[in-house]
Amino acid sequence: MADPVYDEVAAFLGALVAGGMRHIVLSPGSRSTPLTVCAASQPELTHWMQLDERSAAFFALGIAKSTRTPVALVCTSGTAAANYFPAVIEAARTGVPLLVLSADRPPELHAAWGTNQTIDQDDLFGRYPRMFHSMPVGGTSSPETTVQVAEQALAAMGAPSVGPVHLNWPFRKPLEPVGSVPVAQTATGSWSSGSVIGSNPGEAVSRLGELAAQRGVIVAGPLDDPEWTAALAQFAEAAGWPILAESTSQLRLLSPSPNSIATSERFLLVEAHAASLVPEVMLFVGATPTGTSALQWADQHQASKILLIDPAWPWSDAGAVDADVLDLTPDDVSAAAAVVSRAATTTAAWIEQWRLIDTQAGRIIGEVTAPRVSGPSAIRAVAAALENGSHLLIANSMSVRDLDRYTPCRSGVRVHVSRGASGIDGQVATALGIAAATAEPVTLVIGDIAFLHDIGSLFAATRLAATGSVDLTIVVLNDNGGGIFSMLPIAQHESIGFTELFHTPHDTDFAALAALENLEFHRVPSDADPQRVQELVAATGSTGDVRVIEVVVDHSYNLAVRSDIQNRLGQINR
Description:
The chain is of the alpha/beta class. The protein folds into 3 domains: 4-170, Thiamin diphosphate (ThDP)-binding fold, Pyr/PP domains (Rossmann fold), CATH 3.40.50.970; 201-363, 3-Layer(aba) Sandwich (Rossmann fold), CATH 3.40.50; 370-569, Thiamin diphosphate (ThDP)-binding fold, Pyr/PP domains (Rossmann fold, 3-Layer(aba) Sandwich), CATH 3.40.50. The chain contains 21 helices and 18 strands. The chain has helices spanning 4-18, 33-41, 53-67, 85-94, 143-157, 201-211, 226-239, 264-267, 271-276, 293-300, 330-338, 344-369, 375-385, 398-406, 427-438, 448-453, 457-467, 498-503, 510-516, 530-539, 555-569; strands at residues 23-26, 46-49, 71-75, 98-104, 131-134, 165-170, 216-220, 243-245, 260-261, 281-285, 305-309, 324-325, 390-394, 413-416, 442-447, 471-478, 520-524, 545-552. The strands form 3 sheets. It has a 6-stranded parallel beta sheet, sandwiched between helices. A 6-stranded parallel beta sheet has the order 9-8-7-10-11-12. It has a 6-stranded parallel beta sheet with strand order 14-13-15-16-18-17, sandwiched between helices. Helix 7 (226-239) links the parallel strand 7 and strand 8 (243-245). The longest helix has 26 residues, at 344-369. The termini are far apart.
């Protein structure tokens, strides 16, 4: 017997699969039954069940980040979809393709009828989705129509502005299928985020090639595209430009260039170094840098020309550096590298000046962080321990900053970060999504407050660990409160209640939290050698399962290490 509701939904999901979608994340609910049942019956679609919608959304975000392909989310009606909002915002700000499929009650149960579990779900996420569409009530349209909507949704999540899409789909009872569940026939397809193309890319390529004859610097912010990584490295090496490479640019820990500079986030704060290294051209690539040093440097020591390329957020100038925007593809940048022509002696002098300071700064950081555990030494130990082919999700607040400030270059580790809205929520769930989608080792480095914010995802971690489908190490840097605030001017005002209002010590027993979900747990005390952190991360890197490593960080010593490093960087001879 034909079931028009399930025929429509099956055709819709089949079109998504044909367009390249391979993952869908579900949460239990009644009104979403047609979507859930059809998703579970689609053989080319891997479905993941997550009990909590907030965790589910960040889990899907992790899958989409790691696979660079669209991921769908399915929830029931009412406030369920509202729990997606933080992840939708993050997806919108970082160019991650999420497709939110919220089930809803039909129109006759809205408005004056006061039906339970019914809210206005139209445009629930405001301006953040690239597209919103209110679907016809299930069974009142046709499979062909839903296929068209699926194709439009895939297109809206792609170029030139990759991001989330929200489709709200009302269903009437009965919600159960009549007869067998149909499976739409799908063809193997592909989805591509594409790139922004300028109105005259040839002119922009020539312009970039000409500028390469000047002293230039590439500032590489958050960026996760191997084509861009290769093109930037090629151009930098041809032009003799240094790359101020954030760890999240993939030019620090995954595919570093010989021109990648690891310590600029620290040594550019020394005015003598900043003044001696002023370029003629600055090229910002990727999202806005996490650290502020490069932006402050650009503001205080103006280059003659400032350019910007942001594949995920075109025509932006979030750093307010008054940049000229280049709408170029990786191929365009590679083409510019091919036409670069300059004197080798000039190239060597400029890049060697940067390398000399970078080498000395790296040695100082290594010496100061070696004696015992601190935030910087723990981050360095984790980065050194990770095996090639693994993933590192670095949480916001101090963790991502310390990774950028203190880790040297290495290769083989793909770095993920949620810097679109820079929230601390959903980090454990995002890491689980990356681990589940890739089946490769994933390490999450996270602060204690961010970890506590997402402890609900530990239940999902236990369920996934039982399936043998994830390999996740969670390194919790525990300074017993919001340590980042201690580095802000407000920390000098204890009279207004700094400790209570900002530092917020919590004295949580992390071993007990891990024990609640039967997770493997290790604790590294604050007086330990950082080598202990490296040993634990390396030992658990290929065992599978989910582990928690708590690294206790002494607050006062942590501040002293950072201060010592900065003081010694000022003594470097240029």
